[in-house]
């Protein structure tokens, strides 16, 4: 059970504002190692702000956020370098010897073996999403941050991608924080569902499947 695993994320009293009212307002959150957490909440409630902070893109006040350095983030709009091939985008910044082999293996996992030498501009939206996912997964993160990664996909591609993320979670067991507006998706994939409201985690529900 989750409460027996060490926490991979620890947030205490995180407050953020952009000059107006607090978007995050004394937010507390722990995420256990290997947990799959879905984060719901109204548009503008601060979900992406929280993810950016966890990704290290928005520095947080000292002492409020503890998060592992082995983390990767997939944004709703995949960010690929247009002048690098698909496999080079996946291999970008990879340490170690066999960056090409590892990138190709990750692309195979997301079903893109046939697109490894393609240019990003020739990819469909779903292919670009899967490339971004492969780039995140090849790093074997302890924490995987996913910000509405399936939001713009058609139903069939979305179903495939959800299945992919679910099985990759089963296989590699990173902690996952998935932002979504889709309650069905949250219940399908996650073992814990959160709702962000008024700058805090207003609802925190464990999901058990028997
Ligand atoms: P959505 O579901 O629409 O993606 P969200 O929950 O991800 O919404 P955020 O993107 O975190 O919401 O934004 C929360 C609030 O903070 C919004 O009112 C937004 O306009 C504001 N905000 C976010 N980033 C900035 C910024 N860099 N400058 C000013 N305001 C910002
Ligand atoms: Mg958002």
From TrEMBL:
The keyword Translocase applies. Transmembrane segments: none annotated. It is an enzyme of class 3 (hydrolase). Its EC number is 3.6.3.-. Keywords: ATP-binding, Cell membrane, Hydrolase, Membrane, Nucleotide-binding, Translocase, Transport. The keyword Translocase applies. GO terms for molecular function: ATP binding; hydrolase activity. Residues 9-210 form the ABC transporter domain. Belongs to the ABC transporter superfamily. This is Sulfonate transport system ATP-binding protein. It comes from Inquilinus ginsengisoli. The lineage of its organism: Bacteria, Pseudomonadati, Pseudomonadota, Alphaproteobacteria, Rhodospirillales. The chain holds residues 20 to 229 of 285 of the full protein.
């Amino acid at each position: 059970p989750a409460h027996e695993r060490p926490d991979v994320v620890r947030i205490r009293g995180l407050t953020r504002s952009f000059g107006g009212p607090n978007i995050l307002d004394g937010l507390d959150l722990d995420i256990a190692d290997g947990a799959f957490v879905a984060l719901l909440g109204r548009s503008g409630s601060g979900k992406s702000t929280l993810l950016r902070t966890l990704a290290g893109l928005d520095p947080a006040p000292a002492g409020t956020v503890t998060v592992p350095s082995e983390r990767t983030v997939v944004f709703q709009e995949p960010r690929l370098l247009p002048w690098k091939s698909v496999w080079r985008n996946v291999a970008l910044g990879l340490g170690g010897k066999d960056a090409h082999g590892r990138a190709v293996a990750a692309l195979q996992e997301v079903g893109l073996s046939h697109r490894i030498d393609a240019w990003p501009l020739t990819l469909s939206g779903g292919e670009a999403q899967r490339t971004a996912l492969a780039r995140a997964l090849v790093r074997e993160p302890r924490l995987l941050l996913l910000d509405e990664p399936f939001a713009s996909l058609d139903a069939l591609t979305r179903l495939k991608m959800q299945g992919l993320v679910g099985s990759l979670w089963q296989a590699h067991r990173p902690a996952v924080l998935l932002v979504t507006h889709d309650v069905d998706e949250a219940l399908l994939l996650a073992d814990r569902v959160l709702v962000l409201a008024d700058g805090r985690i207003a609802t925190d529900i464990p999901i058990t499947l028997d």
